[in-house]
Design a protein that fits this description.
It holds the Pfam family His_kinase. The chain is of the alpha+beta class and 588 residues long. It has 15 helices and 18 strands.
């Protein structure tokens, strides 16, 4: 089976499809976030600049009021009024009333709450929109400075700031108020700026404040003062620029801080907002997207698993079953899960295997019966051949007058005939086969005293069972075709050997031997069907070895170290026990 199943392939394909989508979304989202951050900073900077410009416009407009007021005839003429007594006369009172009316009108012309004061050094009085009073010249001199002046009033939560601007006529007398003809002071409180900060904070995310290092902070009325103070302390660590934006970390929270400076007052407008609130919709969108991707992957894996379980697993079972059939395992049966198409296929497969198994069992039994009949036939061919040779020997011994040999042969022939007629088994222990061989060689030694023989077979081998009469024909051929044609003596040796992969028993003689072409012809004759020219003994032995032990067993010939021919029986190691158990079971 392939290493990568259908489930793995489908999951891998799904992941390969989703990875580019997630990567493209991540890149697009990051780019959008960066663009959003840039645009947000620019938007905040523009809003702060616009707010600052509104404040500056109002303050600059206020800066023009003293110049406008000084052009008024009543106010301009106020500088030339001198008192002849401690009290104002009617004309002066009328002038003061007109001036107060004009101051009131001027103050009402703006949305900001302002206060105008006109100081007359000649009268020693200060006129406001609703009062006329004496003033302290020394205090006025201390407060008169160029540009806008800021003074903190009150303490704690009640603290506020007063902005004031002085104008003197003539301007050269600014540093000497006692020499001035007319002094105008414009005041407004920080509450006006707080009103604008509250409007600027209308969207709820901002928390703008006015800040001047070394002087103080003007908060909006709903400001988080502790947090604002911490942010301002962080900003003080570096020099503030006229316009800038920073990102600060406080308690694990990121804040986007924008700063815009006022060229008119020197105060900084500082606005901050939590970055989390800005990117919260983006993060929510990201979470929804990644959740959707995860859900898609999960559903895809579930669909892949269902396809794997419903299709590939049954197909894999079929493939495994067919492989077992290939190795002749007909006991395999498939169990279907659920009532689907594969249930029908598995049912037909089981039915097919049952029919095949039944057919093979029938064929196998027929082959066993045919094989047993063939063995009986081959075995029966040995007996006439052996009897023929024995009778030839008796005849020869009778002609020579060797009655002892005739008697011995007759007795041995009688024993042999009694054994074969009573022997119902197809296999016998090797020890019995070797006993017959020894008996045969003793008979041949009686006929030819110069004959020498030896049997060297391990004790373990002698307990194994071998086909009946597979060694005796080899010994007989060695004596008749190897030793007999030569004058004088000869030797026959029988050896058994247990190898790692093969069991061997060989019979070799010291006879005349055979040439290479003769050995090759003998080998070919044994592989061909038996005919009149082919001796039945050796052919019979080879056929029984093939039938008993399979294609890896048989009979082979080669030159012997004794000078004659070596005939070797061989079969695969490990089959002797299996064959023994089988045969015993078959003939129990």
């Amino acid at each position: 089976m392939p290493r990568h199943t259908l489930f793995r392939k489908m999951v891998l394909l799904l992941v390969m499809m989703l990875v580019p989508i997630v990567g493209l979304y991540y890149y697009s989202n990051r780019t959008s976030t960066e663009v959003l951050g840039t645009e947000l900073n620019q938007s905040n900077a523009n809003q702060l600049s616009f707010f600052q410009s509104q404040v500056n416009t109002n303050i600059d407009l206020f800066s023009l009021w003293p110049n406008l007021l000084i052009q008024d005839p009543d106010i301009f003429g106020f500088k030339d009024i001198f008192l002849s007594s401690e009290y104002f006369n009617l004309d002066i009172i009328n002038v003061v009333k007109r001036i107060q009316t004009k101051l009131n009108i001027q103050e009402s012309s703006s949305n900001w709450k302002t206060k105008l004061y006109i100081f007359s050094p000649s009268l020693g009085r200060v006129v406001s929109d609703n009062d006329v009073d004496h003033y302290d010249n020394d205090d006025l001199k201390k407060r008169m400075k160029p540009g806008w002046q800021v003074k903190k009033m009150g303490q704690g939560d009640e603290a506020y700031y007063v902005f004031s601007l002085f104008t003197a006529y003539p301007y050269s007398s600014f540093s000497h108020p006692e020499d001035a003809n007319l002094i105008i002071e414009l005041q407004f409180e920080s509450g006006n700026i707080q009103d604008m900060l509250d409007k600027f904070k209308s969207d709820g995310r901002r928390d703008p404040v006015y800040y001047k290092p070394g002087l103080g902070v003007i908060y909006n009325r709903s400001a988080d003062k502790p947090l604002t103070e911490r942010i301002l302390r962080q900003l003080q660590k570096e020099t503030l620029q006229a316009e800038e934006n920073r990102t600060l970390e406080l308690d694990g929270q990121t804040y986007l801080v924008n700063v815009a400076a006022s060229a008119t007052t020197g105060w900084y407008l500082v606005d901050y907002m939590p970055l989390k609130e800005i990117v919260a919709p983006i993060e929510q969108s990201n979470r929804l997207f990644y959740f959707s991707v995860g859900l898609t992957l999960l559903l895809g894996c579930l669909a892949a698993y269902m396809l794997y379980a419903q299709v590939q697993v049954p197909v894999k079972k079929l493939v495994v079953a067919f492989k077992k059939l290939q190795h002749e395992d007909y006991s395999i049966r498939l169990q279907a899960k659920g009532n689907n198409e594969f249930g029908f296929v598995f049912g037909r497969f089981n039915s097919m295997v049952e029919q095949i198994q039944e057919l093979f069992e029938n064929v196998y039994m027929e082959r066993i019966h045919a094989r047993e009949a063939r063995l009986k036939q081959l075995q029966s061919q040995i007996n006439p051949h052996f009897f023929y040779n024995c009778f030839s020997f008796i005849s020869s011994m009778a002609k020579l007058g060797n009655m002892k040999a005739v008697v011995a042969m007759s007795q041995n022939l009688s024993s042999y005939y009694r054994y074969t007629t009573r022997q119902e088994r197809d296999v016998v222990p090797l020890a019995e086969e070797l006993a017959f061989v020894r008996n045969y060689l003793e008979i041949q030694k009686m006929r030819k005293p110069q004959l020498e023989f030896s049997i060297d077979v391990p004790e373990a081998m002698q307990r194994w069972e071998v086909p009946l009469l597979v060694v005796q024909p080899l010994v007989e051929n060695a004596v008749l075709h190897g030793i007999e044609p030569r004058s004088g003596g000869g030797c026959v040796r029988i050896v058994g050997e247990i190898g790692a992969t093969e069991i061997r028993i060989w019979v070799e003689d010291g006879g005349k031997g055979m040439t290479g072409p003769e050995l090759e012809e003998l080998r070919r004759s044994l592989s061909r069907p038996m005919n009149e020219e082919t001796g039945c003994g050796l052919w019979n032995v080879r056929q029984r070895m093939l039938i008993r032990y399979g294609e890896d067993a048989g009979l082979r010939f080669m030159p012997s170290a004794l000078g004659g021919v070596r005939a070797e029986l061989y079969w695969p190691a490990g089959q002797e026990t299996k064959r023994t158990v089988t045969q015993r079971g078959g003939h129990a």
